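Sample pair:
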Amino acid sequence: MQLKVCELFAGVGGFRLGLEDTEHFKVVWSNQWEPSTKMQHASLVYEARFGAENHSNQNIEEVSTSEIPDHDVLVGGFPCQDYSVATTLKNSKGLIGKKGVLWWSIHRIISEKKKPPKYLFFENVDRLLKSPSSQRGRDFAIMLKSLNDLGYAVEWRVINAAEYGMPQRRRRVFFLGYHKSTPLFQSMLKASAKDWVLEQGTMASAYPVKNIGQTPHNFSIDQNLVELSERFNAEKGLSPFLNSGVCIDGQVSTLKTEPSDTNNGRVLADILENGSADESLFIAEHDLPKWEYLKGAKKEIRKTKAGFEYNYSEGSMVFPDALDQPSRTIITGEGGKSPSRFKHVVQTPKGLRRLSPVELERLNMFPDNHTQLAGISDAKRAFFMGNALVVGVVRGIGAALFRKIQEFEE
């Protein structure tokens, strides 16, 4: 059995690499479109690696659902935006979020498909569980409610790749949806929420966890989407969503978990190009003081553009980066020569240097030179990796999902 996958917001193909690695999934259609740039660099890389057939490079909001083939699994690492609901339409089946908010494109595709996908697999930054700051947790509540309305149960988990043996400390929220027509949905309905999160669920199977002494926090999201958007957590308390949980039939159950055993896995030293790194990556002697200042602790008086003085302070960063631990999170500004507080710097026998594009790919567990293509700069390659997910996490969840489907559906 091989499951057909539709990959949205595909970037340079991290989801595809992770899922197709398991041989149980086959991407039948993909979309990648970057609104803010004329040159579609990520899409060019995607096509170079996977071929142009069944790949779309246009605004997903303008792609007709009829153009998207039927599929079993819908996946994507969609942008983190403001997901508030603007209005409902009297003469429309659906609902409108703010224009340009891409969650509603996912919603539209699922709702318009005569044969909706059985499974959903999404990824986002973990602050999604706490956003926006004015109504903490509202955005995630809107997503859970909209998926509930479309007939899906959802389980989620915040996963730090380094805690499961991968070479980068990258924390992301992953969530899976099961359509009500699937035996997996029925199994989740019968299980206690706590048992599903800790033992029986797909996430627990892929990345084992333990409870840290809490009972689950339970609440319902039974308002309609507009009410939820306007009123959810309006008293501005902490987000009710913890790092693990489930939502089924409008009932949310969430609890704090941590890895059941910490895995001593790969570290920064393991991914370094030893001796083959380009000379341009090495830090010039005259630039060192600037790097040291930016990485160092500060307590100083600064001025705003308007001339107001304020006290500014920040702690020091490890400089150079520790080689015997997983790396810090890669960010989109990792590339380029200019000194920066957040770029990685490693000590080598030849001196201090920044990380190469290949090393950044390895930190996300991409194949070497996956993003290498004529006309794509090293800074752009670093930007891709700052936006990408850790392929190994997807591979683990994908393999666990396939096992669960076999377990419950055969």
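Residues 268-356 form one domain.
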